[in-house]
Amino acid sequence: MATGGTADVRPTIDAALARRLVDRQFPQWAGLPLKLLDPAGSDHVIYRLGEELSVRLPRHAGAIGQARKESEWLPRLAPHLPLAIPVPVEVGDPGFGYPWPWAVSRWLDGEVATTAALAGSSRTAVQLAEFLTALQHFAPESFPGEKAREDLTAGSLAERDRTTRDAIAKVDGAFDAAAMTELWDAALGAPEWDGPPVWFHGDFHTGNLLTVDGRLSAVIDFGGLGIGDPACDLTIAFTLMSAASRAAFRAALGVDDATWVRGRGWALATALNAHTSYAAVDPRVAAQTTRQITAALIG
Predict the structure, then answer these.
(1) What is the edge-to-edge ordering of all strands in the sheet holding 44-49?
(2) Contact predicate 154/262, CB 8 Å
(3) Which CATH code, of 3.40.50.920, 3.65.10.10, 2.40.50.460, 3.30.200.20, is assigned to 4-106?
(4) pTM score, two decimals?
(5) Cα torsion for 199, 132, 257, 203, to the nearest 10°?
(6) pLDDT tens digit string along 80-100?
(7) 277-299: string of b/e by CB count within 10 Å (b at 16+)?
């Protein structure tokens, strides 16, 4: 994670820059067309490169470690997971005024998952539980040492306390502030994860799932991949699922009460952050985060 003056760097990224970086560093792909993926995520500008590849360029300093982390771990994870993931094939270097490492990965066909198509599907919920189970059980031949784990740790709920309480105050009236505060206090007060550290995706929500012909096919964007408490990955239960499919998901994953409450806390905190930042200017985000907050309160 960059600190100091680099934290606010936002380089200009366009097709001409992406073309120059690819052609100079990976001339074997110089003849392949580039097509901007829109809308892209908040962390990267993404171009499709030919039919089989994608180029991912970090937008901000907070995402600059993701290319090398994914390059190291995703090829090792992929054979052990029941859904496809975007395995990196190359990591590019800074160049032409662009300051950070960037990645070329295998392209995965599919449509972004939607609640309209999958919310009520217990089969999908169980598939997602099976994916997380496989991820959590992945045991590399050499577990990352302490230094390596610096890039594989996530922030805690406690670190989000002030911003989450501020957000609750801001949305009071649109949502039940008392109920949100009660949930947040419960999440912060829940017993901490007492099992061995396990792998988590770190940004496991509807927008990072792909479907083909209406069926779940892939999980993307492992920039938040880490080791520790898996509660953050329970966010998917509140972004995608109905009450019935959420129950199937929890049962298949075998989530204890304390972890479930912490997961609800993660869902609430991340939804509030997005809602207060973008809902006023993006109706899609407003709808998604309203659903997530409401589901987190229901449990």
Answers:
(1) 34-36, 44-49, 53-58, 102-106, 88-92
(2) no
(3) 3.30.200.20
(4) 0.91
(5) 70
(6) 999 999 999 999 999 999 999
(7) ebbeeeeebbebbbbbbebbbeb
